[in-house]
Design goal:
- The complex is a heterodimer.
- Chain A is mainly alpha-helical.
- Chain A contains 15 helices and four strands.
- In chain A, a hairpin with a 2-residue loop joins strand 2 and strand 3.
- The longest helix of chain A is centred in the N-terminal third of the chain and has 26 residues.
- By secondary structure, chain B is mainly alpha-helical.
- Chain B has one domain: ABC transporter involved in vitamin B12 uptake, BtuC, CATH 1.10.3470.
- A two-stranded antiparallel sheet of chain B has the order 1-4. In chain B, strands 2-3 form a two-stranded antiparallel ribbon.
- In chain B, helix 2 packs parallel to helix 4 and helix 10 crosses helix 11.
- The longest helix of chain B is centred in the N-terminal third of the chain and has 31 residues.
- Chain B is globular, with a radius of gyration of 19 Å.
- Classes of the chains: A mainly alpha, B mainly alpha.
- The interface between A and B is large, with 45 and 48 residues.
């Protein structure tokens, strides 16, 4: 029997076969949209200034981390406030591997990104597996608080182990961006540093996002959603809870490790106090504001939160009462922090599906136009 | 030996503060099944109020007024951010309180400003000497206040009409509603109580010196405390608070003998203790095991 793989014309949501509904890109529109997005990403570095590209590169890295948190919190429903800890593990593993062997801090001198990026992810993933037994024993809020404890323990270790991290206020150089001797993080004749950074990070984001989407539609992803919706019911229908919770934590930590390894290559420096509770809250905000349980939502949320300081600086031109001076009230930093909090509250109360939900609303409005009510 | 006894007594004093803060968390949890991450902000708000009111009213006048105002703030949070979320998953509400915390702390930090602030407490750093053991007066005061408040709270829950209503609502919300208990009032009162407790606890945490915006981290220690004692156990919060306080101060006393742990390891002792206890008892020392019905 042949399986119909194309949607009937004009009815994109009519799925006539199971494989097509489970496909990576179930509709032609999605394929086209993805292709357009790739094309825009490819040419964007020629159209934007370096400063903007650098910001967008940071957004892409944050999105990788947010996808990781989205997998464990949005898909598997295990609330983790410990994302900053795993980001830190990744950042320091990568820094040690690529660090200068004769430097002030520990280093192995292997600067190839193909080595330090996967290893950073794997080490963080390993820590995820170590933490997972707690997750399989605990549920809901207990787990949230325990992972919060993890952030504090991690912060203490990062602050005190100065041969690894360089110490508070000093820090250490971030990993070197280089592949088989070709520098990815310095300006060369062919492209500027920020153009290369953007291409690299956007490329990695596409790889990580597709991998996550692929995972989410697989047996593992279905097990995650089953656990999230009702773990007892999932256990009854044969989902091995301990196993899949461990997988969720391992994969999420792998993503966090990779994001952590990349995050500081943009600024070039890792400072141990970066891995605080605030960082975890930012990632939670990304996932929730973007839309829990969707990959594209996590990406949108990461871009939104990372661009927020910049947006506020633009707003400052419109609302001159916001000061840029840190000694005046209200200043940009205060508005930014308040907005984190307020946006989380507003989104959770009024649009729990986040930015993704806003998009669904807008799409449905135009789909049913002129009968949209 | 003297050093150890002093460490333990110091721990009891600090533990009393943790117990007060933890009681706030547990009261909210029992009533609404939500962990309020907004407690640090409430505590900081209370402390700042005391520090501003202490010069016109004096410390003992400022403390109740600040507790009352913080209770009102708690009421406001409950009304504005938590009440609309009834029926939604607990973790979503918890994250909302996290947002509330971040937002309120920014506002409170404006009132802390850049100056050195203190709560103008009458004890400062003076001590009482018994034998050759020095005990800080502020720790004695914290312990006595905590004992008084805990006693009053237990009496309230045991003997008053509203206390009975709160226990009933914690037990079974629908049954309580059917018996004419106003569950909304229970929610509101629990947030108000938690706010007042946070203000008092925070004031004693800030006593004896100056404070700044980082004081909110003290309130977070109440989280390991409630996990240790069990989320829904009021005695657990008190016992857990004292235990964590003592453990933290004993480690602080001897941490110089263990330099390989890094400086100030006492700061993370509560979290390590929490992890260890949870590995053995997933519902804390006194928490009730959750019964799942399908």
């Amino acid at each position: 029997m042949t399986v119909a793989t194309k949607a009937p014309r004009g009815r994109p949501l009519l799925y006539t076969s199971y494989p097509r509904e489970m496909g990576l890109f179930p509709t032609t529109t999605r394929k086209v949209a993805f292709g357009v997005l790739l094309a825009v990403t490819a040419v964007l570095p020629f159209m934007l200034a370096d400063a903007e590209l650098q910001l967008l590169a940071t957004c892409c890295i944050a999105a990788i981390g947010a996808i990781g948190l989205g997998l464990v919190t949005g898909y598997a429903g295990q609330v983790s406030l410990g994302h900053a800890f795993f980001l830190g593990i990744g950042a320091y593993t990568a820094s040690v591997i690529s660090g200068d062997p004769d430097g002030r801090t520990l280093g192995l001198g292997v600067t190839n990104i193909l080595v330090w990026l996967p290893v950073a992810g794997l080490v963080a993933g390993l820590f995820g597996v170590i933490v997972a037994p707690l997750a399989t024993r605990l549920r809901g809020l207990y787990l949230a608080i325990v992972t919060l404890g993890l952030v504090f323990i991690g912060a203490h270790i990062f602050n005190e182990w100065s041969s690894l991290t360089g110490g508070v206020g000093v820090g250490r150089p971030a990993p070197t961006l280089e592949i088989f001797g070709y520098p990815l993080g310095t300006t060369t004749a062919s492209a500027t540093r920020d153009q290369k950074l953007f291409w690299l990070m956007a490329g990695l984001l596409v790889v990580f996002a597709l991998a996550a989407r692929n995972l989410a539609r697989s047996r593992v992803g279905r097990a995650f959603t089953a656990i999230r919706d009702r773990d007892i019911a999932a256990g009854v229908i044969g989902v091995n809870l301990a196993r899949y919770k461990t997988i969720a934590f391992a994969v999420s930590s792998f993503y966090a490790g990779c994001a952590g390894a990349l995050l500081f290559t943009v600024t070039g420096f890792v400072e141990p106090t970066s891995f605080s509770l605030l960082l975890s809250v930012q990632y939670i905000a990304m996932v929730l504001i973007g839309g829990a349980g969707t990959i594209s939502g996590a990406i949108a949320g990461a871009f939104f939160i990372t661009l927020l300081p910049r947006i506020i600086r633009e707003l400052q031109a419109v609302f001159p009462f916001i000061s840029t001076d840190a000694n005046e009230v209200p200043n940009v930093l205060q508005v930014e922090s308040i907005l984190y909090g307020v946006l989380i509250i507003v989104f959770l109360i009024f649009e729990p599906r986040g930015l993704f939900g806003l998009w669904v609303r807008a799409r449905n409005y135009w789909k049913s136009w002129p009968f949209s009510y | 030996m003297t050093v150890l006894v002093e460490g333990v007594l110091r721990g009891v004093g600090i533990g009393s503060v943790y117990a007060l803060l933890a009681l706030g968390f547990v009261i909210i949890y029992k009533a609404t099944r939500v962990i309020s991450f907004a407690q640090p902000a409430l505590m900081l708000a209370g402390v700042v109020l005391v520090s501003h009111l202490a010069s016109p009213l004096g410390f003992w006048g400022a403390l109740p007024v600040a507790a009352l105002l913080t209770a009102l703030l708690g009421l406001g949070i409950e009304r504005g951010a938590v009440r609309p979320m009834i029926g939604r998953p607990a973790f979503v509400v918890a994250i909302i309180t996290l947002g509330v915390d971040v937002a309120i702390r920014v506002v409170v930090n404006v009132f802390i400003g850049l100056d050195v602030r203190n709560v103008h407490d009458p004890w400062g750093l003076s001590t009482v000497v018994i034998g050759d053991v020095h005990i800080a007066q502020r720790h004695i005061a914290a312990f006595l206040t905590a004992a008084l408040l805990v006693g009053a709270l237990f009496a309230f829950f045991r003997f008053s009409r509203m206390g009975l209503a709160m226990r009933a609502a914690a037990d079974d919300q629908e049954a309580a509603l059917a018996q004419g208990v106003s569950v909304g009032a229970v929610f509101a009162l629990s947030w108000a109580l938690a706010g007042a407790l946070a203000a008092v606890g925070g004031t004693f945490a800030a006593a004896g010196g100056s404070f700044d915006g980082t004081l909110w981290l003290t309130a977070l220690v109440a989280l390991p405390v409630i996990i240790l004692g069990g989320l829904d156990s009021l005695p657990g919060a008190v016992v857990g608070g004292l235990a964590v306080g003592v453990a933290q101060e004993v480690v602080a006393t001897y941490q110089n003998d263990m330099p390989w742990l890094g400086g100030n390891v006492s700061v993370i002792t509560p979290y390590v203790l929490m992890l260890l206890v949870l590995l053995v008892r997933p519902y804390g020392l006194f928490g009730t095991r959750e019964v799942e019905r399908v």
